[in-house]
């Protein structure tokens, strides 16, 4: 009986670790109009989450669900959604690109393990691109870059890559290069495996097929692959030894070294495509699962024990005591206040009491939901590595740490940028005074 119980426990531990290793918590960040939401919509289509592709200009995208977002064609609030790609679970947060809503990016990056930074192939690195890049660097979030809109007139993939080096100081290099440009952009060359793929069809019917590398691009592709290997060798000592002593690196080894260098924030893989034309999205999804970290790849989270005032850490393990951070609050017309939390260790269960270490209070978890933009999926339990929303934590606010009272821990608060403008408002009529007060109270709770 004891052996059976031990085997069952080991099986549970192995299953939990497998789930962690197969999870990616990522954000999509960029300057406004670089194509974040369009890219997110295509990702949801390719992963089978949606069956009809929405359009930003028509206000029909999944993640821009607020009326104000649909009317203006911009993302105002970050939206969380879950999907799957090749047996990997992706928790994706689509963030705003407008400078006015940069705090949405800040609090999202605080709890994410990786980021896809989208750049316009025409404009390259733009002012807000630099801002979100610095925000990701502040939290040491590993990144991959996606040069978008390569079907546009004036787009230049290699010029955009060069700007990553000059303006952002990034150790970045393409892992694929485009075949053709502007209206003739028709495919990509995978530099890791030295294979070419061309696209056929339009919109949701777009499909790719493997083709020989165009004769006029063989030399360029070989040169770019050589430069990629040199970049990785400079970032990884083991790769350098392999390159120097063995005279080359096999594709599966190169993928391993790229992943390791990316997770260590020593390298940024660059992908290319046109999200609107549905080109390059599948290869980007492969890059997300291949190169960005799982919760198990991230160092243990550190915090302060409020009783001993000593630093402690929590590993991404369901066997550890609960440690979670409330990073966003949203008012819901049906269930009230939704508290978005990232669980770093332990488990969160419906009906149990949790301890708010920041406010020294206990609160009961009424409901746990997985968010799919404005849709909700009720679950009874969430584990280490999960990002979920919780109902019932009435006094919890943004930046609070949720844990167990017997093993308290306080995580670092979220950094809030200083406001760039202030103004006074007053109700148009006396009758509006009460409604205005309620609206301001709601905004205060959510901010």
From TrEMBL:
<feature type="domain" description="Tr-type G">
    <location>
        <begin position="21"/>
        <end position="296"/>
    </location>
</feature>
<dbReference type="InterPro" id="IPR005225">
    <property type="entry name" value="Small_GTP-bd"/>
</dbReference>
<dbReference type="InterPro" id="IPR041095">
    <property type="entry name" value="EFG_II"/>
</dbReference>
<dbReference type="InterPro" id="IPR031157">
    <property type="entry name" value="G_TR_CS"/>
</dbReference>
<dbReference type="InterPro" id="IPR035647">
    <property type="entry name" value="EFG_III/V"/>
</dbReference>
<dbReference type="Pfam" id="PF22042">
    <property type="entry name" value="EF-G_D2"/>
</dbReference>
<dbReference type="GO" id="GO:0003924">
    <property type="term" value="F:GTPase activity"/>
</dbReference>
<keyword id="KW-0648">Protein biosynthesis</keyword>
<dbReference type="InterPro" id="IPR009000">
    <property type="entry name" value="Transl_B-barrel_sf"/>
</dbReference>
<dbReference type="Pfam" id="PF00009">
    <property type="entry name" value="GTP_EFTU"/>
</dbReference>
<dbReference type="InterPro" id="IPR053905">
    <property type="entry name" value="EF-G-like_DII"/>
</dbReference>
<dbReference type="InterPro" id="IPR000795">
    <property type="entry name" value="T_Tr_GTP-bd_dom"/>
</dbReference>
<keyword id="KW-0342">GTP-binding</keyword>
<dbReference type="Pfam" id="PF14492">
    <property type="entry name" value="EFG_III"/>
</dbReference>
<dbReference type="InterPro" id="IPR027417">
    <property type="entry name" value="P-loop_NTPase"/>
</dbReference>
<dbReference type="GO" id="GO:0006412">
    <property type="term" value="P:translation"/>
</dbReference>
<dbReference type="GO" id="GO:0032790">
    <property type="term" value="P:ribosome disassembly"/>
</dbReference>
<keyword id="KW-0547">Nucleotide-binding</keyword>
<dbReference type="GO" id="GO:0005525">
    <property type="term" value="F:GTP binding"/>
</dbReference>
<protein>
    <recommendedName>
        <fullName>Tr-type G domain-containing protein</fullName>
    </recommendedName>
</protein>
């Amino acid at each position: 009986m004891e052996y059976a119980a031990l085997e069952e426990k080991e099986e549970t531990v192995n299953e939990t670790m497998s789930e962690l290793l197969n999870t990616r918590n990522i954000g999509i960040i960029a300057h406004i109009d670089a194509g974040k939401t369009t890219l997110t919509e295509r990702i949801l289509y390719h992963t089978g989450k949606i069956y009809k592709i929405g359009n930003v200009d028509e206000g029909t995208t999944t993640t821009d669900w607020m009326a104000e977002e649909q009317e203006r064609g911009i993302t105002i609030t970050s939206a969380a959604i879950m999907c799957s790609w090749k047996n990997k679970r992706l928790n994706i947060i689509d963030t705003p690109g407008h400078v006015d809503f940069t705090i949405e990016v800040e609090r999202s990056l605080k709890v994410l393990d990786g980021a896809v930074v989208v750049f316009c192939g025409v404009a390259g690195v733009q002012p807000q691109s630099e801002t979100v890049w610095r925000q990701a660097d502040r939290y040491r979030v590993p990144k991959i870059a996606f040069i978008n809109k390569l079907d546009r007139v004036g787009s230049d993939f290699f010029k955009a890559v060069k700007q990553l080096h000059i303006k952002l100081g990034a150790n970045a290099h393409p892992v694929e290069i485009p075949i053709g440009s502007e209206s003739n952009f028709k495919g990509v060359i995978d530099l890791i495996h030295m294979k070419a793929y061309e696209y056929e069809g339009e919109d949701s019917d777009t499909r790719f097929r493997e083709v020989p590398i165009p004769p006029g691009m063989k030399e360029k592709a070989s040169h770019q692959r050589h430069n990629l290997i040199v970049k990785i060798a400079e970032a990884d000592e083991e790769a350098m030894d392999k390159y120097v002593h063995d005279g080359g690196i096999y594709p599966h080894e190169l993928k391993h070294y790229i992943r390791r260098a990316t997770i260590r924030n020593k390298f940024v893989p660059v992908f290319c495509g046109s999200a609107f034309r549905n080109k390059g999205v599948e290869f980007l999804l492969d890059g997300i699962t291949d190169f960005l970290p799982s919760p198990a790849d991230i160092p243990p989270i550190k915090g302060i024990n409020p009783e001993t005032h000593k630093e402690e850490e929590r590993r991404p393990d369901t066997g550890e005591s609960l440690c979670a951070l409330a990073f966003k609050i949203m008012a819901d017309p049906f269930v009230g206040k939704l508290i978005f939390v990232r669980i770093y260790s332990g488990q969160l269960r419906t009906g149990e009491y949790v301890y708010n270490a920041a406010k020294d209070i206990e609160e009961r978890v009424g409901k746990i939901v997985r968010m799919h933009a404005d849709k909700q999926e009720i679950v009874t339990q969430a584990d280490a590595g999960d990002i979920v929303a919780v109902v019932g934590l009435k006094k919890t606010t943004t930046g609070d740490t949720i844990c167990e009272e017997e093993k308290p821990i306080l995580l670092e608060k979220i950094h809030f940028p200083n406001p760039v403008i202030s103004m006074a408002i007053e109700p148009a009529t006396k009758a509006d005074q009460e409604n205005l007060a309620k609206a301001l109270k709601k905004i205060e709770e959510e901010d």
